[in-house]
Amino acid sequence: MILELDCGNSFIKWRVLEANQAVVFAEGVVDSDVALLGGLHSLVGLSLHHCRLVSVRAQEETSRLVDVLVAAFGVSISCAAPSREMAGVRNGYEEYARLGLDRWLAMLGGFRLASRACLVLDFGTAATADFIAADGKHLGGFICPGMPLMRNQLRTHTRKIRYDDVAAERALEKLEPGLTTAQAVERGCTLMLRGFAQSQLELARSYWGKEFSVFLTGGDAELVADALPGARVVPDLVFVGLALACPLS
Ligand SMILES: Nc1ncnc2c1ncn2[C@@H]1O[C@H](COP(=O)(O)OP(=O)(O)OP(=O)(O)O)[C@@H](O)[C@H]1O
Ligand SMILES: CC(C)(CO)[C@@H](O)C(=O)NCCC(=O)O
Ligand SMILES: [K+]
């Protein structure tokens, strides 16, 4: 079996594939290394041989996780690394190694699935957009705060914006003007994300007309999905790219 890990800024997304790489044996989202280990140890019938991993965390933090996994499971681990060109995509950054690896892998995944120009949108801790032309050239992208950051900035920098997770969830049943603080904030931030997404869509249209695909990924993809008709929600897009960047051989 193969363990795949996407270590984001807030959460670790993990899944275990059967040896044939076609069937998902188990998967989850955790908020710490300890929780990851706990989740894996509780799986009956787990038999790991390889691990592939992408991280946008600090080097030391990632190395610590790698060491723990090697000690616990004796697996060989392959970490995605920055690259100028891979799977037909050419990194467009002035300094290619500075492009977030989650963005890079989502781009590789999107371009592989689309085989044409694509716009890749990722809604996690940060929200990101990346543009890949039909010939594989990465034209660059945009980064802005995602839902968790926008919400927390408002909570942290005001005295009177306070509400719980239940109120937050219920607030998003509609997008009408809010009549409570929770509704006003949750809906306002959702509209910010949708506006971000729609302006990327307009830019993509100005470049490519109708000849492009739009991919949506990240934990908050569903918040913007119905504002972008025709977009494909692919929750495991980073993992699609991870398999391309870290093939087993
Ligand atoms: N099952 C889930 N577990 C955790 N967060 C989830 C889940 N489903 C949706 N979310 C939402 O997804 C967001 C986090 O997104 P995601 O997990 O893609 O990124 P992240 O690890 O926080 O950050 P990064 O962008 O660095 O990868 C949060 O706003 C959270 O509310
Ligand atoms: C933008 C995030 C935080 C999104 O997860 C990540 O891709 C990252 O840390 N990127 C490095 C900066 C950059 O991509 O320019
Ligand atoms: K991410």
Automatic annotation (TrEMBL):
Name the keywords, alphabetized.
Answer: ATP-binding, Coenzyme A biosynthesis, Cytoplasm, Kinase, Metal-binding, Nucleotide-binding, Potassium, Transferase
Q: Which residues bind ATP?
A: 6-13, 125
Q: Where in the cell is it found?
A: Cytoplasm
Q: What is its EC number?
A: 2.7.1.33
Reactions accelerated catalytically: (R)-pantothenate + ATP = (R)-4'-phosphopantothenate + ADP + H(+)
Q: Which residues bind K(+)?
A: 122
The keyword Magnesium is assigned to this record? no
Write down a Pfam family by its short name: Pan_kinase
Q: Which InterPro entries match?
A: ATPase_NBD, Type_III_PanK
Task: State the active site.
Answer: 102 (proton acceptor)
Cofactor(s) recorded for this entry are: NH4(+); K(+)
Question: What Gene Ontology terms describe what this protein does at the molecular function level?
Answer: pantothenate kinase activity
User: How does the cofactor bind to this protein, according to its record?
Assistant: A monovalent cation. Ammonium or potassium.
Pathway(s) per entry = Cofactor biosynthesis; coenzyme A biosynthesis; CoA from (R)-pantothenate: step 1/5
Gene3D superfamilies found in the cross-reference section: 3.30.420.40
Q: What top-level branch of life does the organism fall under?
A: Bacteria
Q: Indicate which residues the UniProt annotation says bind substrate.
A: 93, 100-103, 181
- Main enzyme class: transferase
Does the record's keyword annotation contain Phosphoprotein? no
Q: What's the main place this protein lives?
A: cytoplasm
Write down the NCBIfam families for this protein, in alphabetical order.
baf, PRK13322.1-2, PRK13322.1-4
Q: What does this protein do?
A: Catalyzes the phosphorylation of pantothenate (Pan), the first step in CoA biosynthesis.
Quaternary structure, per UniProt, is: Homodimer.
Q: Give the protein family.
A: Belongs to the type III pantothenate kinase family.
Which PANTHER family does this one have? TYPE III PANTOTHENATE KINASE (PTHR34265:SF1)
Question: What is the protein name for this chain?
Answer: Type III pantothenate kinase
Question: From which organism does this entry originate?
Answer: Pseudomonas hygromyciniae
Q: Which gene encodes it?
A: coaX
